[in-house]
Design goal:
By secondary structure, the chain is an all-alpha fold. It has one domain: 434 Repressor (Amino-terminal Domain). Helix content is about 60%, strand content about 0%. The protein is built from 6 helices and no strands. The longest helix is centred in the last third of the chain and has 27 residues. This is Bacteriophage CI repressor helix-turn-helix domain-containing protein.
Length: about 120
């Protein structure tokens, strides 16, 4: 299945395979409700924002843009950590614009999914 047509849960499952995690191990590491991943897998349903937040906090190398949209690489490189990037003034505006566009896209996708817009 091509990545662009996968759902968030499909991409999470790809990440789990990459990290050699099963449902139980992910649930424990990210402090998720027991059975949540299995139910989402069976129903092909989405994940709540609090669940996604817990997963992203547990796995800081997981690219949130990839998880939600399928765009970009699965993993963030160490240089992607914004706190470690030394941006020059001329590049910072375009970087901020890129972040804003990505956030706007993610918000739109979440609204579309949860509010059926």
């Amino acid at each position: 299945m091509e990545n662009k047509h996968k759902t968030t849960i499909d991409r999470l499952l790809d990440f789990m395979v990459f990290k050699n995690l099963n449902d139980n191990k992910l649930t424990k590491l990210a402090n998720l409700s027991v059975g949540l991943i299995g139910r989402a897998r069976r129903k092909k349903s989405g994940l709540h924002t609090d669940t996604i937040e817990k997963i992203l906090k547990t796995f800081p190398d997981l690219n949130p843009t990839w998880l939600l949209t399928g765009n970009g690489p699965m993993l963030l490189s160490k240089t992607d950590d914004i706190s470690k990037v030394n941006l020059s003034t001329k590049h910072s505006d375009s970087f901020i614009d890129e972040i804003f566009i990505t956030q706007t896209d993610i918000i739109y996708m979440l609204k579309k999914k949860y509010f059926k817009i």
